[in-house]
Amino acid sequence: MREIRILFMGTPDFAVESLAQIIAAGFTVVGVVTAPDRPAGRGRKLQQSAVKKYALTQNLKILQPTNLKSDSFQEELQALNPTLQVVVAFRMLPEKVWRFPKYGTFNLHASLLPEYRGAAPINWAVINGEKISGVTTFFIDEKIDTGAIINSKKIEIAPSETVGTVHDRLMKIGGELIVSTIKQIESGEVKTTAQNKELEEKPAPKLSKENTKIDWSKPILNIYNLIRGLNPYPAAWCILENNEKSLKVKIFDCEMALAETNETPGTVSIEDKTLKISAIDGYLFIKEIQLPGKRKMKVKDLLNGLTLSEDAKMR
Fold first, then answer.
1. pLDDT by residue (tens digit) across 42-71?
2. For the chain, does the N or the C end have fewer beta carbons within 10 angstroms?
């Protein structure tokens, strides 16, 4: 058996589960690399990453380099002497970092590669209405998410499932896949498969103000999938025009219904204590919404204090 000394790299909640399962499996973790503390919230207080918070509870050595190419970080690598690096939801590594360990550096990606390479694979799988997703472990190479595949595991996505629940399920099986991948590397029996370059690419770009805005002129299913693919974070948004005011609102929980309609897309009405929005081929029934400066709330509660004008619309 090979001697496995792991340096773990990750930052958000998604990575915590993987680190926890590595520790539970009894592997030696020589250190954790995570993002520097950053100011957040109204008070701009320094906030620790989710991985750092967990690593502190396990008394693990924590590194928070701002420059992965710096001499000081290279010296830390030499001192820790990892034989394997495991990366989950971290930034791109310079070659001299990912080549450093004797048994390589592998990454967990939250898609079935080569599909959905990029920053937001879980969101885009749901936004695009995929019925299957999964996680993949692969050895890092010079490009982003293109290395040789070690293992993968699939899950089914329910038609009404939100990105939040898909995220949590992939987080769990991702940790399991990482442990099985480490065991294969430890035994020296790891096998890899080159990514299929012939498959049509399905990109997973970073979420932005532009690609999270609802376009009410699109088919109702596209709108519905966008909303569930951004619920709970960062949330799909649009502008509510009502009583000569323009409010940026975020939409969370909703239901859809296909139907013939002659209404202008984005027309707003109230039906059965919910907001009914028209699209080109149906209606969206909003159940949970957030107004500017407010917490998200059930629409039935919002309607207790909302007067809707006859010409109210979403745009």
1. 777 899 999 999 999 999 999 999 999 999
2. N
Burial 100-122 (b: 16+ CB within 10 A, else e): bbebbbbbbbbbbbbbbbbebbb
SS3 15: helix
* Tokens standing for residue 98: 């990912």
Domain ranges of the chain: 5-187, 220-314
Superfamily of domain 220-314: Formyl transferase, C-terminal domain (3.10.25.10)
Strands of 157-272 (E only): list them: 236-242, 245-251, 254-258, 268-271
Euclidean distance between CA atoms 85 and 103, whole angstroms: 8
CA atoms of 33 and 136, how far apart (whole Å):
21
Query: Using CA atoms, how far apart are residues 148 and 263, in angstroms rounded to an integer?
Result: 51
Q: Is the bond preceding 36 in cis, omega lying within 30 degrees of 0?
A: no
Mean pLDDT of 256-264: 94
pLDDT of residue 40: 79
The CA radius of gyration of the chain, in Å to the nearest whole number, is: 23
**Residue 267 has which token pair?**
């027309």
pLDDT above 80: residue 17:
yes
Fill in the amino acid letter for 224.
Answer: Y
Alpha-carbon distance of 110 to 17, in angstroms, equals: 13
The dihedrals phi and psi of 228, each to the nearest 5 degrees, come to -70, -25
CATH H superfamily, domain 5-187: Formyl transferase, N-terminal domain (3.40.50.170)
Helix or strand holding residue 52 (H, E): helix 50-57
- In contact, 165 and 7? CB cutoff 8 Å: no
What residues does 255 pair with on adjacent strands? 285
What are residue 248's DSSP bridge partners?
A: 239
CB neighbour list of residue 56: distance below 8 Å, 6 or more residues apart = 48, 62
Alpha carbons 196 and 148: distance in angstroms, whole number: 10
pLDDT tens readout for residues 157-176: 999 999 999 999 999 999 99
